[in-house]
Amino acid sequence: VSKKGWLGAALGLTLVIGSGPVARAYDQPVHVLLSARAYGGPATVPAGDPGAVRALRERVWHAGAESTDAELKRRFLLRYPTLESFDSWAFKQFLGLNPDKSIVGFDEVPLPVGDGRTAYAAASRLPDDDWRNRERFRHDANRKVIMGPYSQPLPDDPATLDMGGITGLSSQAHAHYQLPKLQFSDSPDVLKSDPRRFATPPTIKTFSAAYAEMYTVLAALASRLPGGERLALTHAAAAAHHVEDVANQIHTVQVGVFDFFLDAKLEQIKEELRSVGGLLRSRPSFVSIGIDIVSNHHTLLEALYRKHLLQPGDPVAKLSAEAPTDPQFAADLQKIDATCAPGFARAIVEALAERSSFEGPEVYAEIRKVANKRLSRVHQIYDDQKEDPDLEIRPGADLSRFYELQARGARRSDQALQAWWQRFAGCGRLDAAGETKLAESLVRARLDELDAADARAKAYVPKPPERESVNVWVPIGYALVLALVALVVQRVRRRRKR
Ligand SMILES: [Zn+2]
Known about the structure:
mainly alpha
């Protein structure tokens, strides 16, 4: 295959990540387990005051509207001139969440119940359950979704499309992935030599660290409000969700392995031949074949780990419980200031992304090695809701390295959350100036994101929907082969007559 062909293949990849069910990170029950295991807050937490949700929103509005930083104040008041204009819908949009979804901790809906550990564990799965990061569309001044020219809604931030579709599970990938801080390249050679550095487009943005930071500040501010303890726990758990996702190595690389391309390309060639270039029947595009192959493996490996991790007495559960800590990651965490200062959660997630990303490609390579070959074929879909993941593993396959990597990832989640709780404990002891600094850091970060998203939205040109065409070279190729066969047969016959 020519180099140009591979480049085209690589460019199709945005969509490989784009439309498939590949963006959930850990399954929700795994979030519950990891959060319960790493909980570092008080054993019991009061039910709290339902008014805390509103009080927290007002706290953030005052931080922007009354900032001593004149420029910050000006920028904030331009968007939210009055306290009344900063209702829960505006607050969710300000924070980069889907404002049309009802979200625990932002809308006046009940907070998770139970003791500290139980409520924290349950709340940590909510960012997946309530779709707060999915389907973030642009809205007009009347809060109506703005439609694009091809009867598709416009994205609130076009950067979300670097990692996923405009709708569906993958539309939340931007918020649940964190790629390491690297100079990215969309050259297929990079995918072979240094897969951590492969991304298309190379300007890609992922936001898990930013969301972890945002929820951390909200939790710190909530914990200082009268009756705000349970609300603080809810936002602390949302921060934990983003930490846990990044501990899952496959959420720190965009693609992982070059072999998925090779598989998709071979299947595409077969499909071209079988359908005579689309003349006899419709056939899936290279991109959609790629989407299915990657998502099959992504879904399978998560289902496989979930099943064995949560099964009592399973050796994988034991392996995970006993996995050693990562000394390099421990050293990296040591370098992050051990106080409740703005940016500590972001720094923890970025350090985690750096370590996880070295193993992301290997996790994909390991599952590809042991999975049934059918999962790399066209028209084959693995459905984790219906199919036992163990039935998709080749008989006699060696899964030891795969499980070792999974257990290591889960252990890093513990390390990161432990570092988080250590620093968060200091948030309650901040003085008024320290609290203001924290609140203003949130306002500044969000205004910067909104400005950047607005600029991207202004420059955004929606792509027209793809149309399937017949590849005439395939029928011409068949015709040439037939003509050649006919010619040879004719010659052989003539020779025999002589
Ligand atoms: Zn997630």
